[in-house]
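In response to reviewer comment 3 from the previous cycle, which asked for concrete evidence that the modeling workflow produces usable outputs, we include below a single protein chain processed end to end. The sequence was submitted unchanged, and the resulting structure tokens are shown without manual editing.
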Amino acid sequence: MGQISKPKPVNLIIGVLTSIPALLDQIDQTLEKYFGSIDLRSGVLPFNFTEYYNEEMGRGIQRQFYSFGKLVMPDEIALIKVKTNNVEESIASSRKYSVKRPINIDPGYISESRLILASTKDFSHRIYLRDGIYAEVTLNYRGGRYETFPWTFPDYKSADYHNFFLKVRELYVRKLKRGQI
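The workflow returned the following structure tokens.
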């Protein structure tokens, strides 16, 4: 019989989509309020992989990723997704913006072997966690690079994303070695 053990902590990441550049300038403070200090940011990347969000968010959508200094336990991702949904709703309900959905905040985490994303949508490749939240393995780390799956979103297949995630993974491994939790 296998021994039950506690998992290693993981590196929280959050991807933000918006067509309102000013929101990218402001969201850092909100994310840090809830999840602690940001230790790495991606550049602002054009989101031109799909038009899926255009009706709700408008055109010219951009993406930015954030990595957080404090490691979290993997089972916290469900609560984190609930919090990010609440932040999205709060921003949308302020009615300060001309689009229906001003921001999309997607949390996930990086471990030594994979990148996990949290979702409110069920599908065959997603596992139910709790509170209406599911998780999927979006990328697999092997041989010094990330590998995709048939269900991996097109943007998560891009070299820009992989390069950022590799930097986060390197930072994460250093945190584990230092015992930073």
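The chain has a mean pLDDT of 95. We consider this sufficient to address the reviewer's concern, and the full set will be provided in the supplementary archive.
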